Amino acid sequence: MEIPVRGYDSELSLRDLLSGISEDRLGAVMSVLLDSKFRVVAENGDLIAGETIAFNEASNRISLSYDLESVGYLETISTEKIDEAKLRAAVNLLQLLMKSGARYFMASEMHIEVVKSDYEELQRKHAALLESESRYKALAEQLDERVKEQVKMIDSAQRQLYQAEKMASIGQLAAGVAHEINNPIGFIKSNLSAAQSYVKKCRSMADLVKSEGGEKLVNAWKTADLDFVLNDFDALLQESISGSDRVARIVADLKGFSNVDQAEEESVNLNDNIRSVCNVAANQISSQAEIVLELGELPMLRCFPGQLNQVFLNLLLNAAQAMKTRGEIRIKTNFSNGKIGIQIADTGSGIPAEALPRIFDPFFTTRDVGQGTGLGLTVSRDVIMAHGGFLEVASEIGVGTTVTIYLPVVE
Amino acid sequence: MAEFDEINRKITIKLVYYGPAMSGKTTNVMQLHDMLAPDLKGEIMTLETQNDRTLFFDLLPLGFRTQSGWLIKFKLYTVPGQVVHDATRKAVLSRADGVVFVADSQRSQGINNSESFQNLEDNARRVGLDFDVLPLVVQFNKRDLPHILSETEIQDRWSAAPWPLVFASALVGTGVKESFIKLLEAVYPALNKAFSLQETHQIGMSAFIRAVVGEPDGNPG
């Protein structure tokens, strides 16, 4: 509630000056003192105490003054003879009361004024405090945001570094292995071909030995079962050739994989990359799962194939490791709405719902110490995002996990 | 600004004694009460004292009646000097027509004086008084004490200031009336301009001052 302020220095009326004093009691005191009918009236005629009806002839009318001026009168009826000393005493008493009233009035008005001004000052300070508080709050929020941003930056830099190092070392290893195997596998293959032609030559001798040869020679031929040997030898060599072909293909894939550190973009058909990655991973995976490829028609994609290979490998190995018993990893590719979709679905143990929101967090892993870095999915997501795409993960405990990669194809 | 009451034919003028704590503002007013003999003189009202220190203000009413029947009334206030009572000082200063700044001449009080003077300037602005035109007299009080600034030092320091300087010892009574008269001289022109004291009421400056101070009105001015 607003307290009206009159001002401690405003002009005071007789009513103001006697405002704290009960009219009845003042009247009672005055009648005893004066022993007569009386009236106390203000300058403007307001009755303050005493007789309600004005006296006909107010011969005794003494001015009551306050602050240099008359503010009212004490009146008594002229017909009643009143002791002058008593009258003066009554006036003095009234003036004392007035002075005390004035002191009270001024003190209280001043108090209100001061309190009000102090309150306003407090309000002003409060407003200023609120403002500075909100400023600091905003600053703190900004700071928090910047710290988060920095942490994010450091995280991603760390991951990139880790990835780059990993890629480089894998690339080097793969390149080294491929180079070392390439040479021996070359001569083994050519030797096997030569051996095959030698077997053919031997076989051409068989009929001649059996028809023209002496009994001893034919018996020895039969004892040694050389007909079978020659057939089996051929088969063995054929098998070895296809085996070395397989090794050669692995070497070729490894070489392709070793290109991970190449910085340039390339236009590739991702189906080829997937096949190559499957071949590389086949050894690690074959004991746990069967890989089923359902590769659809894909357009060429400009990308960093080495990085995407790493993603596919990560996801394949994750899928394989999710297997409690031997299962199946189904890789599907398709192209729709300008996006290549690559779905890698396993029949593994699935990811618990509470872990699902965290799987992309750096260094989050459910594997035993030393078994996983917790960076596979993080790096994978980064790579996919760097290619403008995104990842989706759906998982059900005991049923399996499906990771779907979407990569936009830019014309 | 002075109050002009046409109905009761009254002009009320508010004068304020301002200054640091214990510089002698109340003593000034008490001395004036004893020294002056104007037509009308009220009692000093003190609100409230606490260990002889002014808590709210002191008030001395003075006045005289012009021949035209007008009441010219002066209310002399003192402010509480202690720093904590700033809101009270501000309230007392509001609507003032003139100020006597009572400074303490003691060497140790220099900072208090200047802080209080700065406070006067700040508060004048806060209550809407134009400090540049506000009638002001600067009184250096307590000249009777040892370890005080010399008059030359004070005059040097205040040489650039436009206000009259008065040296006083309120306790003894010297310089008190002089300060008051200097203030009346500074206040008169504004009052005359506002209320045509000279034209309407035939009160020149000297008559005005004599009437307030209470000296015989030998030669109306």
What does this structure look like?
Chain B: It comes from Sulfurirhabdus autotrophica. The complex is a heterodimer of chains A (411) and B (221). With 411 residues, chain A is an alpha+beta fold. Chain A has eight helices and eleven strands. Among the domains of chain A are: 111 residues, Beta-Lactamase; 147 residues, Heat Shock Protein 90 (2-Layer Sandwich), CATH 3.30.565.10. In chain A, 56% of the residues lie in helices and 17% in strands. In chain A, the strands form three sheets. A five-stranded mixed beta sheet of chain A has the order 6-8-9-11-10, with helices on one face. A four-stranded antiparallel beta sheet of chain A has the order 2-1-4-3, covered by helices on one side. In chain A, α5 crosses α6 and α6 packs parallel to α7. Chain A is rod-shaped and about 190 Å long. The model of chain A has no long low-confidence stretch (mean pLDDT 85). Helix content of chain B is 35%, strand content 26%. Chain B is built from seven helices and nine strands. Chains A and B meet through α3 of A and β2, β3, β4, β5 and β6 of B.
Instruction: Output the CATH homologous superfamily of the domain at 264-410 in chain A.
Output: Histidine kinase-like ATPase, C-terminal domain
What shape does the CA trace of chain A take?
rod-shaped
Q: What is the typical, i.e. mean, pLDDT of chain B?
A: 91
Query: Fraction of residues of chain B in helices?
Result: 25-40%
Secondary-structure content class of chain B: alpha/beta
Strand content of chain B: 25-35%
SSE run of chain A? HHEEEEHHHEHEEHEEHEE
N→C terminal distance of chain B: 25 Å
Count of separate DSSP helical elements of chain A = 8
User: What oligomeric arrangement do these chains adopt?
Assistant: heterodimer
Biggest sheet layout of chain B: 9 strands, mixed
Name the largest protein-protein interface in this structure: A-B, 18 and 27 residues
GO molecular function (chain B): GTP binding; GTPase activity
Protein name (chain B): GTPase
Pfam families (chain B): Arf (PF00025)
Keywords (chain B): GTP-binding, Nucleotide-binding
